[in-house]
């Protein structure tokens, strides 16, 4: 069963990313380390006691569509009510509409614990957070007054309607139509797929944010507008009125996340209202994309943490064969190969967590820092770290969950154990909210468009730490030197990227993203080890010895260019022979 | 849908491992390249037309236990009948009892195609092959006469009963009892778990090979004997007699392989007969362990091939966004990052296939080579390559299936597509028949006990090829140099392993196994590229540029030793903090 890693979260916040700086800003003056610790501890209780106990049963039972209505698994409704009552849906929302106004950094820690405890259920508040943010930034005053209090309180939930069958990663290809009715509302017609929590029996209504095209809108991504389309049309008093003309056609049969209803939606002349400007829908979506991507990265961290805990507990109990220690009588945790896996799991998890929280911190400082320059710097760094937080966080989630299955041996393949569920649930996180390949394209495209300034700022900090610690405590000199080498390879690769043609960058993007992430991960682990805590020293050493060597291999891969990949025409490449 | 990769299989057999040498031996004189090609083509038809069409439906339907009897999914019975009629169950069995007497090399190619087409169903003949081999080697003449013809014809199927809840990887800990009855038979009492195809409605009886302890047998692995325990007691004429006192208690609910019934078995005073000598049961099992492990490695190759085909087909059809080629109008196969994944998938699959087939070839030559010395050399090489074939084959199966999901994007997470099934089905192959960690322990323990002779023989061949080709065709000079570097790192790591303490080797075993496998894979791909075929040249170049660089990183990891892994006591390591 899940136990929130409170000390690790605290160490990440305080030692690795120095989040204490938040409370020195005016905006987050209340977010002192003590308050943050108390908030995190409160959320930990909720995750442990209300969400974790129904994670496995929810997977086995699954959400179902019955007479056009989604029934979530037993216990979801009650657990959701607790999430809502605790104020966790609106924890980062503006206090003006009932939110807690917490920094994204703290929200990320809370979201991580909810993802660890029950990823399927955690998606419901996570998606509401996205809807809240979109309406806060782009809604009219009337829309804000109508929707925000109910979304923030959790009475209603939010759902994002982007994808259509022909328009997955390429959102610009979507076809859903919005016709002005003349009274300020629009008639929405079209179909959407992969709509997580598009309907449910936890909230009393679902507020859909829907991307659609106005008549005569330009083709492609410049002709898309954003609409708010509630399941029930609100009455003048904000209560639930008539049922809107939208419905759930079916639920997808997925590899994992069985508790989370993934809806195929049909809009059949549903009534909606424009959010933001006409044809600026994608821009509206993009303003919250950083947070959403960070949120998904955090999902990966959450599953990595849970899979690690589960594997550790199993390895501590399971007896098989003669161990090299304890007169051969130990449990399998005593085998070197099992320890290798556990150390990899723990250190990768902590590295991914640090990168994700660091990203969150920068997004907070982009709002809260005292000067415009500092805010701009933080925004740039947050934008730079976002694809890393998303792709590395979810890749680590998958990798660690797979290692967790392996530690369990045969029991890992049996569903009763639960280890398999983590590997199934987390799989989609590398795909949705922009595949990890798309994250890499974002990194080597948009995020290097500053001439590598953000990359160099981050790598410079790592180099500085490496230099300082190479002359410090003996146990950390080796890791410091490994970090320095990794920084060297990362800098060289960055230079190569900056000079390379776009498609050559694209060919190496995924590898570049990973090598940067490993390098930064090594930096954060080393920073936390500075205090001399034996566990943190051991993890930093393990990561430096066993994961940082990958950086050089990745640098070779990342800088191969695209030419060879096109040596075969597609037909020859794909023909079975 | 699956299309057997006949040209790739042929190239592997003829160019990579030079299997033509088999027909120069007396034992396999009939296995000429032409005959082998005809046999493979015949099996290909069966896999494509009878097995592949029921792969997805079988996963969705699953095997069920109804009134104590296993019902396999719709169509399994009919497809199994075709496998049996084609003689594929007994394809490598002795012709004396109705087998085809084919080399293991050819059997491996056939098994690969069956695994690609329908892994769940393919396990049934695969396990029968194991039972046949055990009885051929250790059965009495009466046992052979009674069981072999029916197993070889497929009328009955074979099942292996090793695991008990407390005895997974540590088979020596098992507790099932066998009491002599006095008439030459034994009374078997105990429970077994994870018994694949332990009951079914495809064959008319199931022949269980059961490991159990005789009264007063020594503790541990030296007190285990092997018994044959049929579902129905045979009549004097070989027909089915009375039902034996064994039953299926339940079927496991697994992450994948839903079509394959995984039984919890209860032996309640079942009648069995000793196979081989008393207390030599594990040795009997070990004589067929190489083949069984190779068989599982081949399962990984089969799924890798299938996942690659599926991803290629999807990437050729799916349109999303503006491609960097074809005026932006191409399908996603035109994106560099998608090509990177596809090239990795194809080249890894071919590398794993070559290693597995090379292992099979050595196992054949261990029987067929003309001199005792050549047979001993082949046996040693076959034993050395077995853990690589098993662990690398299955790791590649998992890695490639995961890449396949990723290429599919959101469709990869939806079960209807089929890509997810491959990743679920293949997951257990890294676990059963000895986890991949155990394969690595076997490699750095038993398989290096020759002082590294087999390793050096294999690496020497790779070095020779690299030297020859570094001066050959320009397109292959780079890959040849990359191979030479990999060989250098592999040799250094081998030397380190030979000098290291056992637990230090154990700590690096998994990484050492992978670096050897990548090196040999690079060699085989280069050998196939020698002829200048553009597809093979491209794959060899891609593998050398993008996968061989891993070898150096793995060498660093492999040679870290165990000390750091024990820096924390287990309690500190595992405590959530």
Describe the structure in your own words.
Two copies of one chain form a homodimer. The first copy, chain A, is an alpha+beta fold. Chain A has three domains: 6-285, Butyryl-CoA Dehydrogenase, subunit A, domain 2 (Beta Barrel), CATH 2.40.110; 288-434, Butyryl-CoA Dehydrogenase, subunit A, domain 3, CATH 1.20.140.10; 451-565. The first copy, chain A, has helices spanning 6-16, 33-51, 55-61, 76-85, 104-117, 119-138, 141-153, 281-287, 289-317, 336-368, 372-407, 419-426, 436-444, 453-470, 474-499, 502-529, 534-546, 550-558, 570-574, and strands spanning 64-66, 69-71, 156-161, 177-180, 186-196, 205-212, 225-230, 232-234, 240-243, 246-251, 262-275. In chain A, the strands form three sheets. In chain A, strands 3, 4, 5, 6, 7, 10 and 11 form a seven-stranded mixed sheet that branches. In chain A, strands 1-2 form a two-stranded antiparallel ribbon. In chain A, strands 8-9 form a two-stranded antiparallel sheet. In chain A, helix 2 runs parallel beside helix 5. The first copy, chain A, is globular. The model of chain A has no long low-confidence stretch (mean pLDDT 96). At the A-B interface, helix 1, helix 9, helix 10, helix 11 and helix 12 of A face helix 1, helix 9, helix 10, helix 11 and helix 12 of B.
Short précis:
Two copies of one chain form a homodimer. In chain A, 55% of the residues lie in helices and 12% in strands. The first copy, chain A, has 19 helices and eleven strands.
